[in-house]
Design brief:
Chain lengths: ~120, ~110
């Protein structure tokens, strides 16, 4: 089956610093990748959708200058949380879709971000 | 029994009993639905899906029922096991928007 990895699996950073999270599709080419954020005991909330080679589409209320998304290749998307603050502490999950006409999304294991 | 916590409803069932997890969706244009299982600290795991042209689909120990009239989805787990303890999310997809919208989730707790 399709495998999506994320790195790192967890990260602790100081307030004001930036953190980059990688999402990779290991055995398929991901034309579309999605980034979700999940707070404790809550559902996944879509942050942005990115298509390879084009700018990400952000959901309403998500600051594109704070959450930088790059989808430079068909197997890699990155999410950079810039000038992180404690309220950015969350579980960040990516998913990938292999073809533009497929509903199927494959989820990564998630990255736990803690900002101190 | 079933209770509603501050953020996450919880369903407690005895090991060996059947579980039914419910989900109400909001978009009448949604035409594809997935149930995911999420264990603590992990990403969502696909369980079963159903398209809007069906009202029932069965997998191994799981059955999904879709009632489009009342926009309701349910997941039935037969002979619930301790390993089924997790949070279960339904997700709906309107093809025009490509992305999935997730329900609030239900925590399933299996009692010995």
């Amino acid at each position: 089956g399709a495998v999506v990895s994320q790195h790192p699996s967890w990260v602790i950073c100081k307030s004001g610093t930036s953190v980059k999270i990688e999402c990779r599709s290991l055995d398929f080419q991901a034309t579309t990748m999605f980034w979700y954020r999940q707070f404790p005991k809550q559902s996944l909330m879509l942050m942005a959708t990115s298509n390879e080679g084009s700018k990400a589409t952000y959901e309403q209320g998500v600051e594109k200058d704070k959450f930088l998304i790059n989808h430079a290749s068909l197997t890699l998307s990155t999410l950079t949380v810039t000038s992180a603050h404690p309220e950015d502490s969350s579980f960040y999950i990516c998913s990938a879709s292999g073809t533009s006409d497929s509903y199927e999304q494959y989820f990564g294991p998630g990255t736990r971000l803690t900002v101190t | 029994g079933e209770s509603v916590g501050l953020h996450l409803p919880t369903l407690s069932v005895q090991e060996g009993d059947n579980s039914i997890i419910n989900c109400a969706y909001s978009n009448s244009a949604s035409d594809y639905f997935i149930w995911y299982k999420q264990e603590s600290g992990k990403g969502p795991q696909f369980i079963i899906d159903i398209r809007s042209n069906m009202d029932k689909r069965q997998g191994q120990r799981v059955t999904v029922l879709l009632n489009k009239t009342v926009k309701h989805l349910s997941l039935q787990i037969a002979a619930t096991q301790p390993g089924d303890s997790a949070v279960y999310f339904c997700a709906e997809n309107d093809w025009a928007f490509q992305n999935f919208v997730f329900g609030p989730g239900t925590r399933l707790s299996v009692l010995p």
